[in-house]
TrEMBL record:
<feature type="transmembrane region" description="Helical">
    <location>
        <begin position="86"/>
        <end position="104"/>
    </location>
</feature>
<feature type="transmembrane region" description="Helical">
    <location>
        <begin position="258"/>
        <end position="276"/>
    </location>
</feature>
<feature type="transmembrane region" description="Helical">
    <location>
        <begin position="376"/>
        <end position="395"/>
    </location>
</feature>
<feature type="transmembrane region" description="Helical">
    <location>
        <begin position="53"/>
        <end position="74"/>
    </location>
</feature>
<feature type="transmembrane region" description="Helical">
    <location>
        <begin position="110"/>
        <end position="128"/>
    </location>
</feature>
<protein>
    <submittedName>
        <fullName>MFS transporter</fullName>
    </submittedName>
</protein>
<feature type="transmembrane region" description="Helical">
    <location>
        <begin position="288"/>
        <end position="321"/>
    </location>
</feature>
<keyword id="KW-1133">Transmembrane helix</keyword>
<dbReference type="GO" id="GO:0005886">
    <property type="term" value="C:plasma membrane"/>
</dbReference>
<keyword id="KW-0813">Transport</keyword>
<keyword id="KW-0472">Membrane</keyword>
<feature type="transmembrane region" description="Helical">
    <location>
        <begin position="223"/>
        <end position="246"/>
    </location>
</feature>
<feature type="domain" description="Major facilitator superfamily (MFS) profile">
    <location>
        <begin position="20"/>
        <end position="397"/>
    </location>
</feature>
<feature type="transmembrane region" description="Helical">
    <location>
        <begin position="149"/>
        <end position="167"/>
    </location>
</feature>
<feature type="transmembrane region" description="Helical">
    <location>
        <begin position="21"/>
        <end position="47"/>
    </location>
</feature>
<dbReference type="InterPro" id="IPR050171">
    <property type="entry name" value="MFS_Transporters"/>
</dbReference>
<dbReference type="InterPro" id="IPR011701">
    <property type="entry name" value="MFS"/>
</dbReference>
Length: 420
């Protein structure tokens, strides 16, 4: 590709998005540059504190349980109170709870604060996703979500490599660094990001889509099917932060080894997310979701044959490709299935699928590794990936073309355009 072609591709990728989106994007990037707890919690508990894999799994599960409860609560807050207040409360609370985690010593205290960190950190996600859907035009949303995902992984790639070495010197320093970066995110939101919640006029309030409750979301069968399949895929991807570090630690690898291997995930997403998104943007999402699920399952399944940092890194490459394809495709589908005035609740339910996976995955990982060995965990990932692929294949055949991103659909209603 020539320099001119590359410049044109970059310009087309970033142009046309509102200024508010870029401040929200900046907040996301700053937050992920300081990421530490989610990446190194398992190693902190097993190597630094000397706890078992089962206890590390229990603590990570409590972290996930906090996320389960706050995902729905954060979605309701985003719809009722607004996106901006929800973001500010969640980010400030996260900063203080992460800092506290670096100082607690008692195992019960560690577990309790981990629950608090999970609750506060996940409360912001529905608000972020709903805000992006509010401020970005429907035709630009897949691109916007891809750029946001790119920022997440740019920060993750940098923080993973740096945090691996920070952990060898002081885990507490990592916790304090994350707390400081999260506070910086709150400052960016407070100063630069305005409220985006669509106003509900008298006419809109009488419309069927305005009366959205959690019960409405639960009764939406096709959306809940997407949530269920998302849970299966998330269950697999969680092993990058849960099963993989425990397995590598038990095999004699250091935190820096794990940091370098998992950083490949972030680096590849930074390099490939935008060009791959441009390639798949107008392709059939039905096939993309099936293929990405299979790649995720069998990518982790290949980890059973890894015996060096290089081989571990190669397996990371396989399931990272699945992540690159799955993330914008699935997020675009979720937004399209969500009514305008219920975006917070719908995004909260979708976020909860990942939070429930964060609850179940640690328990599953620790139990399977302790009782049967890591090889059984990786085989189970292949089975779950196959099940998710079959599920997406069956579900997407029943969805009309207009309900799937990337498939030609009728023009959006004026109410949706004005709300965004």
């Amino acid at each position: 590709m020539s320099v001119a072609s590359l410049r044109r591709a970059v310009t087309e990728t970033v142009s046309g998005l509102p200024r508010e989106f870029w401040w929200l994007w900046t907040s996301t990037l700053v937050n992920r540059l300081g990421a530490f707890v989610a990446t190194f919690m398992a190693l902190y508990l097993t190597l630094d504190r000397g706890y078992s894999a089962s206890y590390a799994g229990l603590v990570a599960a409590l972290h996930g349980l906090g996320g389960v409860l706050s995902s729905l609560g954060g979605g309701v807050m985003a719809d009722r109170l607004g996106r901006r207040p929800t973001l500010l409360v969640a980010q400030i609370s996260t900063a203080f709870s992460v800092a506290l985690l670096g100082f607690v010593q008692h195992p019960v205290g560690i577990a309790g604060v981990a629950f608090l960190v999970g609750a506060t950190s996940n409360a912001s996600r529905p608000a972020v996703q709903a805000m992006m859907a509010d401020i970005v035009r429907p035709e630009d949303r897949v691109r916007a979500f891809s750029l946001n995902y790119w920022a997440i992984n740019l920060g993750f790639a940098v923080s993973s490599m740096a945090a691996g070495f920070i952990a060898e010197a002081s885990y507490r320093a990592g916790f304090l660094l994350e707390a400081g970066m999260t506070l910086a995110c709150a400052v960016v939101v407070f100063v630069k990001v305005p409220e985006s919640r669509p106003e509900t006029t008298a006419a809109a309030a009488s419309a069927p889509e305005a009366a959205v409750s959690l019960g409405t979301v639960l009764r939406d069968g096709r959306f809940m099917s997407v949530v269920g399949l998302s849970f299966l895929v998330a269950l697999i991807f969680q092993q990058g932060a849960i099963g993989l570090p425990i397995a590598m630690g038990e095999a004699g690898f250091t935190p820096a080894d794990y940091g370098m291997a998992i950083a490949i995930n972030g680096v590849l997403i930074v390099v490939l997310q935008i060009p791959v998104t441009r390639f798949i943007e107008h392709r059939d999402p039905r096939r993309l979701l099936v293929v990405s699920s299979l790649l995720a399952g069998y990518g982790f399944g290949l980890t059973a044959f890894a015996g060096s940092v290089g081989i571990f890194a190669l397996t990371v490459c396989v399931w990272t490709l699945a992540e690159i394809v799955n993330a914008p495709t699935q997020t675009g589908l979720v937004v399209r299935l969500s009514p305008v005035h219920g975006r917070g609740r719908y995004q909260g339910m979708y976020t909860m699928s990942w939070s429930v996976a964060a609850l179940v995955a640690p328990l599953m990982s620790g139990l399977v590794i302790d009782r049967f060995g890591a090889e059984w965990l990786w085989g189970l990932c292949a089975v779950v990936g196959t099940a998710a692929g079959l599920g997406y294949g069956a579900l997407m055949r029943r969805l009309p073309a207009g309900d799937t991103p990337g498939v030609k659909a009728p023009a959006p209603a004026k109410s949706e355009v004005s709300a965004a």
